[in-house]
Amino acid sequence: MTISDLMFPPAFIMILGALLVPLVRSSIRPIVLVAIPALTLLMIWNLDDGVLLTARFLGYEIELVEASNVRRLFATIFASMCMIGGLFAFKHAKVAELSAAMAYAAGAVGVSFAGDLITLFLFWEFMALFSTVVVWCGGTEAARRAGIRYGVMHLIGGIILKIGIEGVAVETGSIQIAAMQLESFASWMILVGILINAAAPPVSAWLSDAYPEASPTGSVFLSAFTTKTAVLALWLLFPGQSVLIWIGLYMIFYGIIFALMENDMRRILAYSIVNQVGFMVVGVGIGTELALNGVAAHAFAHIIYKALLLMSAGAVMVQTGKRKCTDLGGLYRTMPVTAVCGIIGALAISAFPYTSGFISKSMISQGAAYGEMAFVWYCLVAASAGVFLHAGIKFPWFVFFQKDSGMRPKDPSWNMQAAMIIFAAACVIIGVFPHLLYRFLPFAVDYVPYTADHLVSQLQLLLFAGLAFFVTLPLMKRTMTISLDVDFFYRKLAPKLWRGFERLLVKLADLARVLILDPARHLPAWWMRFHGPEGPLARTWPTGSMLLWVSIILVVLLVGARIL
Amino acid sequence: MSSNNDIWVAEQSDDPYHVVVPRVPVPDLVNGQPHWLVRPSTIRLLWWIFGVVLALTVVAQIFIHLHDYFTLDGFFGFYAIFGFVSCLAMVVFAKLLGVFLKRPDTYYDDL
User: Fold this and answer.
1) Looking at CA atoms only, how far is residue B41 from chain A in angstroms?
2) A374-393: pLDDT as tens digits
3) Mutate to test the interface with B, among A219, A450, A451, A460 (most CBs of B within 10 A)
4) Where would I find the beta strands (DSSP E) of A402-536?
5) In this structure, are A183 and A264 located in the same domain?
């Protein structure tokens, strides 16, 4: 399609679909859930490069659709995710969740093709809105509260992003999406606004707080869109900004360490999203063509295997109602399909040879090697081993193996199995035939993943990481705990301080009432309280206590006088 | 599964989804026997296989030259040692950090 025959952005198909989902009969709903993203995919693949659709908005010429190969790649995986996620979810999820998830995916597709900062911001907020609804569809009190926290966090991020966009628009007069330098306050604000959505420090906690509270199907959708649109925005706006390398490295190790401490299986996977997005943020920070290719490939591969992992966790939840590793275990006996698909996802996230992670993540670390960033490269290698530790083995081990929980649930319904099998197959196919993905990458690829050198080094690394897991298994005994994070400040400390403040206000109001409003009535009672027969100031005190206080005052005075 | 000798009990769990999970009264047994995968003999065998594979990946380095970009990664068995040691360090670090950061999972429930 060229500029002349494009009437509307691809995202509009899915917005329309989101409106359609609750209206159609439940027997037709699965067809809508699959057909709408399929139509969107068709449209995405027919977009020519360049700006295709413009409009006037608030006096600005905004570019609703600008296509390029990296944008098409991200939009493709977002729409595919919506399709397979819909297949996975339609029997179990609420209609509101299915509809909100499609609107959420529409926002992600919209961001992918946003040609300017205003369009980006509009779709960005659209995503924040509907992802909050998806969290709320968890249906529990915990989900309601987590949804509010999630919504507030993303609205704050949105405001910061908007401040940045307005600043850039005023300073440069341009709202184009193009690589920026971090030289003004406004561009920093844009970076911060995007990084909040990427779950960067110090606010990484929003992700592991909200996603595991969504429904078993909702967390599958949530894992895909918000953080990866943030990665795309970083890719387009801030390639090669070295500050991103350090932020990304922090995210990588934060994800591993917190996942190792965690007991809730979906929260383990949530931490590992932060970890994987960290790899992408590092890649953007490195900023070479190889690294940027790696980021795009890794985002594509990551959405598939992370959704697959959350699908297998969701299937376990649907069938057992349990989510904690301490309650689970031994499920491979009766849930073989879920177990095998979960293991394939776990191998893919660990970048095991012949899975999708192997051919994508290695491009990023190779980028660090060619860029002669020794420290970064060593960190990435250690982190690759750590991923196998916390997600690659820990998740399947504690859910499907370890001690037998005695539960004998069946595999989930056919649609859930089908969705898992499709994504598991995708992980393997991309891993075995990397050129299928490589030819759609933004830059020409001359990287060869399958060399004897790479295979041996990766196997050595991963298998010895596996050995470390089983050797340290006694140290990893699951505990019924959560880990404190930055969310402590707004979930515990701030409410406590606020309640203390409230109590203080109530006391002050009481005092004011006594002294000002009706002194004649309250003052005598108040006096009685302190000076009455039982009041502390009228009581007879032992002489010893008086002596004690006199001597304390004397000591204070003497010491004070000496110091002064 | 009706041919199974185990007594099956349905259990109402305390989760919000009210899933009724089939359960066996005695874990680890299938038809009165441990599942073949959890028998001590199988586990011993798996450890042996794992050990051999581990050794093979290191031995392979004799025949396949691993490209080195920096200094340390040129050493023999670098990836094995580095992977093992860094994982060990991360597990120990997580354990130590857990002492300070872990709270009962009902920690936020009273709000």
Assistant:
1) 16
2) 899 999 999 999 999 889 89
3) A460
4) 481-483
5) no
Rounded-to-integer distance, Cα A363 and Cα A353, Å: 14
Asked if residue A267 and residue A221 are part of one domain, the reply reads no
Which range marks the domain in which residue A521 is found?
Answer: 486-538
Tell me whether residue A229 is in a domain. yes
Higher-pLDDT residue of A510 and A230 is: A230
Q: Is the ipTM of this complex over 0.85?
A: no
For residue A74, the distance in angstroms to the closest alpha carbon of chain B comes to 32
Predicted structure pTM score: 0.88
∠ Cα B53 B56 B62 (to 5°): 165
A179 with A271, same domain: the answer is: no
Q: Which residue is listed with tokens 């031995």?
A: B59
Among A198, A216, A237, the domain boundary falls at A237
Which is nearest to B81 in space by CA: A381, A196, A165?
A381
**Nearest C-alpha of chain B: how many angstroms from A244?**
23
Instruction: Say whether A409 and B60 touch across the interface (CB within 8 A).
Output: no
A185 belongs to a structural domain: yes
DSSP state of A448: -
For chain A, what is the domain count? 3
- CB contact under 8 Å between A407 and B23, yes or no, is yes
Domain assignment present for A137: yes
Which helix (H) or strand (E) element contains residue A147? helix A141-172
Tell me A390's DSSP state.
Answer: I
The answer to whether B76 faces chain A, any CB pair under 8 Å, is no
For residue A433, what are the β-bridge partners? none
Q: Residue written as tokens 């050198």?
A: A453
Please check whether residue A423 is in contact with residue A309, taking contact to mean a CB–CB distance below 8 angstroms. no
Helices A356-370 and A265-286 sit at what angle, rounded to 10 degrees?
40
**Which residue from A347, A343, A460 is spatially nearest to B85, judged by alpha carbons?**
A460
Q: Which of residues 285-324 of A touch B (CB under 8 A)?
A: 317-324
**CA torsion angle A503 A508 A511 A515 (round to 10):** -160
Quick check: is A562 in a domain? no
A44, A162: one domain: yes
B33-70 burial, b at 16+ Cβ within 10 Å, e below that, comes to eeeeebeeeeeeeeeeeeeeebeebbebbeeeebeeee
Do A411 and A454 lie in one domain? The reply is: yes
Clarify whether residues A114 and A174 are in a common domain: yes
Contacts of A58 (CB under 8 A, 6+ apart): A118
pLDDT at site B37: 79
